[in-house]
Write a structure and sequence with these properties.
Blueprint: H1 22-38, H2 49-55, H3 60-71, H4 75-92, H5 101-108, H6 113-124, H7 128-144
Helix pairs in contact: 1-3, 2-3, 4-5, 4-7
């Protein structure tokens, strides 16, 4: 399929999704958002759906159902999406220009550089280094104008 051997996930129709009460879905959705947006737990490479479930006093099936229903993706994809958004910021912020791709990768929670590059490329269609270079080139053009 391409440089990083990415395969599309097939949509599964898990029966348990329809068994989760709407109120519980809303409640867990808000809690998951807090964990990701405020607490930034995705930066911990070992933070799993199981740890999230324990922290929210629920089980992984409910976490999976809520992530599927409200975020329209699986847990790993959600984690990677937040990590890549964070990486985009770090890659373009002047304060982090001295950081290597490995350092940025570790800062946002990837266990290794390969996973970082694969997820970044899957989501944005460009490598992290390519993204940084594009941004720097645009910045130089803007400075000239």
């Amino acid at each position: 399929m391409g440089k990083y051997n990415l395969t599309e996930k097939k949509e599964k129709n898990a029966a348990y999704r329809s068994l989760v009460r709407a109120e519980l879905v809303d409640e867990l959705y808000e809690k998951i958002l807090k964990v990701f947006v405020v607490d930034k737990k995705y930066r911990d490479p070992s933070y799993s759906a199981k740890k999230l479930a324990e922290e929210l006093n629920t089980n992984t099936r409910y976490i999976s159902a809520v992530v599927n229903i409200r975020f329209h993706q699986n847990y790993s994809s959600l984690v990677n999406e937040y990590r890549i958004k964070d990486a985009q910021y770090l890659l373009t912020d002047k304060r982090y220009m001295d950081k290597t791709m490995e350092e940025i990768s570790a800062m946002v929670g990837f266990a290794n550089r390969q996973s970082f590059y694969a997820a970044f490329y899957k989501i944005l269609g460009v490598t992290p280094r390519g993204y940084r270079m594009e941004h720097l080139a645009k910045e130089k053009e803007t400075a000239k104008a």
